[in-house]
Amino acid sequence: MLSSLEVRNYVLIDSLEIDFPAGLVIITGQTGAGKSILLGALSLVLGAKAEPSMVGESGDTCVVEALFRIAKDSELEERMEAADLDWNGGEIRIRRVLNRTGRSRSFVNDEPVALPVIQSLSDRLIDIHSQHQTRLLSDKQFQLDMLDNYALCNELKSSCRSSYRRLAALRSELSSVNDKLDKLAREKDFNEDQLRTLEEASLREGEAEELEAEQKRLSNAEEIKENLDEAAKALDPGEEGQSVGSLLKEVSRLLSKVSSFIPQAGKLSERTESARLEVEDILDEIQREEEAVEVSPGRLQEVDDRLSLLYGLMRKHDVGDVSSLIAVRDSLSGSLHDTSKLEERRDTLKKEIAAEEKEYEDICKRLHDARAEKALPFAAAIEASIRSLELEKAVFQVDLSLADPGPDGTDSVQFLFSSTGKNPQDVAKCASGGEMSRIMLCLKAMMAKYANMPSLVFDEIDTGVSGSAADKMGAMICSMGRDMQVFAITHLPQVATKGKAHYLVSKNQDVFGKDTTSIKKISGTERVTEIARMLSGSTITPAAIANAKSLLS
């Protein structure tokens, strides 16, 4: 049940904290007092669409918080567990914070959650029947759900939906595998040719870089050889002059001769000798490099041809290096050899689909049998309820027919109605506004009995109904309040006098002339006065007071 509601800065509500009891809760107020605002705040915290205009004038954010206390609901516990939320002994506190940009944040037991989580939980916490919800009578899914609630086959329907999802997933995977196999078959010859070209290229990591360096040397071989030769001659002119090594050797000898007179000269002699050895080593390496330089137009042509092949393959496969070419080659090789695995998976999927189809068909049959068995008793129960609301000749029937396979099985449900007892037709097309209100109340009463919903809100479900029929609707709502928490927002005194908890919504002006909406629990004289106002309008007469006391008693 909804235990309490706190609202801060929502439209015309500045600040509101209200506790609610179990059973039937009556909410009344003059037109425009803000009953719809209060219901809007409750809808917001339960996951309804947020609008920037919902934020009041007292700040940049509005906050709505609702506390629910649930005795036992295994499905709700499973949903909370799936969202990684603590059951908390059945105490569930939901809070939603909305700012002026229209962005909102949601919390469950102070844990931040995504909005779909709130919406999933609210389906099991409270059902809000607003004035426009009679349109559900044209909704085939709503009609099917009502019959399923009565037939107590929601667990079977949950199994059906799971089987349908598995079947859809298997069929989707099979379609994907078949598409891949078809694509591989179409591209087989082309891919084999591509792979053959890459394998014949004998690709090697880093080869392009090595060839580019060799190409650079071969292209400039004559210039390189000439420069190395000149460098060698500079160090050792041969017959044309004395070498640098010989000169350094003579310098070292002369310094050594005077080292006994000048100690520093010995060190200089050693350094000169070291320089001579380094020069001779450099000369030796220059000569070896010169000998290694190959002036070979033939090898240069080979390198150019190899690089041209590699560059051409890179352009063809839209890659930038040989490593990527190797990856393309391996991928092509894998795809060409992957056909057997795909064919094996295809065969497995076909077997799994056949088994799942059998399972799905079996569930659909059991669902159909359960629905067919309960369709007549359900229609009879609803018809009896409708007739008790001063539609004595009314006929209500359930037409169960075959439909295309779907998540809820292979059945389609249509509610048929006639207020005169003749020629029942689609309820959404033949019922008047008052008749639809009564039919919806009867359906909701049935749902309250079988759907295990802890709280139910009726927002002026009595629209279009008056007199004794309204009194009987009030009695039905009151009866529902014995088994669950029921909120009845109403303009009819016949309904407002039912139940013990009565709340009055009113609009007032503060000292600055600003309109604000508030709600308070009323009893005694205040409740008599409110019922009298509903009976007589703005001028409350003694007769209205007496009538109100009579209704309340």
Can you characterise this structure?
- The chain is of the alpha/beta class.
- Among the domains are: 1-129 and 453-522, Rossmann fold; 207-320, no CATH class; 525-553, no CATH class.
- Helices cover 56% and strands 18% of the residues.
Offer a concise description of the structure.
Helix content is 56%, strand content 18%. The protein is α/β, with parallel strands linked by helices and 553 residues long. Among the domains are: 1-129 and 453-522, Rossmann fold (3-Layer(aba) Sandwich), CATH 3.40.50.300; 207-320, no CATH class; 525-553, no CATH class.
Structure characteristics:
alpha/beta, 553 residues
CATH topology of the domain at 1-129 and 453-522: Rossmann fold
| Rg computed from alpha carbons, rounded to a whole number of angstroms | 45 Å
Distance linking N and C termini: 27 Å
Which architecture of the domain at 1-129 and 453-522 does the CATH hierarchy give at level 2? Answer: 3-Layer(aba) Sandwich
The largest β sheet comes out as:
6 strands, antiparallel
- Which stretches are low in confidence, meaning pLDDT under 50 for 5 or more residues running? none
Mean pLDDT, as a whole number? 87
Shape: elongated
